[in-house]
Amino acid sequence: MTVHLVIPGLLGPLPETDIPGKLASFPLLKRCLARADQSPWTMDSQRTLFNLLNIGAEGDKDLPVAAISLLGETGDIPEGWWIHADPVTLKADGDRLLLFDAQGLDIQRDEMQALAAAFNDHFGCDGLRLYTVAPDRWYITATTAPDVQTSLLTDVVGRNIDPWLPQGQEASRWRQIINEVQMLFFNHPVNAAREAIGQPTIGGL
């Protein structure tokens, strides 16, 4: 039997130079890795995992990550096209916007339900619907296939969002959706209430 270990983010979201020092905190893992064959990859961790499971073809621009994630969480994939749409917070840094994930946002169930309702009211006529499975894991379903390539959230955390925005034939449409969501959430009572008690706002998807 061969066991493959794919451990994205083990050493943090940014590159580390002191790998041995970091692994000292995980003695059993260090022992296991010392006896393993290491296969560095240049692709993202999700594509690596799909390749190990023989899912998808060489050269696929996007893999059905959201649909399979949803299946794992709920046991079902409702009809439609699915895309990850996790909540994020945005922080201005000069003329840049830095993106951070939902860690530390402490999103409550009533907050995510209210924001999802606002999204669905606004974008329902465009064939888009937001599903909030957990406070930090949200999905958009579309009635037509989004002709767009996206980036892993883990690759973008702490960075300027501009180089990581959607690419492809429908890039301009999805960038407009992202901007509209930011404005929709900015003006929502959920974020007004969070600001009033000093909590970071839920700035977008």
Task: Provide a brief overview of the structure.
This protein is α+β, with helices and mostly antiparallel strands and 205 residues long. Helix content is 36%, strand content 13%.
Give your account of this protein's structure:
- With 205 residues, the protein is an alpha+beta fold.
- Helix content is 36%, strand content 13%.
- The chain contains 8 helices and 5 strands.
- The chain has helices at residues 19-23, 27-34, 45-52, 65-74, 109-123, 153-156, 171-186, 189-196, and strands at 81-84, 89-93, 96-100, 128-134, 137-142.
- It has a 3-stranded antiparallel sheet with strand order 1-5-4. A two-stranded antiparallel sheet has the order 2-3.
- The longest helix is centred in the last third of the chain and has 16 residues, at 171-186.
- The chain is globular and about 55 Å long.
- The model has no long low-confidence stretch (mean pLDDT 87).
Describe the SSE topology.
Blueprint (H helix, E strand, L loop, with lengths): L18 H5 L3 H8 L10 H8 L12 H10 L6 E4 L4 E5 L2 E5 L8 H15 L4 E7 L2 E6 L10 H4 L14 H16 L2 H8 L9
Antiparallel strand pairs: 1-5, 2-3, 4-5
